[in-house]
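Priority: medium. Attachment 1 of 2:
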């Protein structure tokens, strides 16, 4: 028997196929329109993918594949930008997706509000001396922006529910 040489292709080629085969966002399950790829939770843009020219074989790809995810643009954005938000945006979004019956549009609305609020708080919030550790609805609600504060408060309350659930799960 003649041994066939192992077929190798650049990683970027595998990723191209991977991208084309993905139909739903790996995070929110929405049907994909524009695809964003992440590797181990970090966004890799088109140019970055094109540079991945390491030649690998099928076995190499099988080892690499679990690290990659195809996400919708919205989820991709969250992964690339929100890791250091004041709030746990990704956890919050997962909670809304999995534990509530909200539509994608409504979830998006909540997430966008909380992101904005997180940015605002990161700039302006100075915790009082006797503030309890971590998230506290009562303390934070005094620091809301002056405009649309009611909308932010609604998002904050929802986040509070998420935090309480997290704590219950950890006990
Ligand atoms: Zn998504």
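Attachment 2 of 2:
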């Amino acid at each position: 028997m003649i041994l066939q040489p192992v077929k190798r292709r650049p990683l970027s080629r595998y990723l191209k196929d991977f991208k084309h085969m993905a139909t739903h966002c790996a995070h929110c399950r929405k049907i994909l329109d524009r695809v964003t790829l992440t590797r181990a939770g970090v966004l890799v843009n088109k140019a970055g993918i094109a540079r991945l020219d390491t030649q690998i074989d099928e076995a190499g790809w099988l080892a690499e594949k679990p690290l990659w995810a195809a996400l919708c643009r919205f989820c991709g954005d969250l992964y690339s930008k929100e890791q250091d938000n004041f709030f746990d945006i990704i956890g919050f979004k997962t909670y809304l997706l999995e534990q509530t019956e909200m539509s994608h549009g409504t979830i998006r609305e909540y997430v966008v509000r909380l992101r904005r609020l997180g940015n605002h708080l990161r700039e302006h919030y100075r915790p009082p001396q006797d503030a309890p550790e971590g998230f506290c609805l009562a303390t934070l609600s005094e620091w809301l922006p002056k405009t649309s504060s009611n909308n932010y408060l609604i998002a904050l309350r929802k986040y509070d529910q998420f935090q309480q659930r997290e704590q219950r799960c950890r006990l």
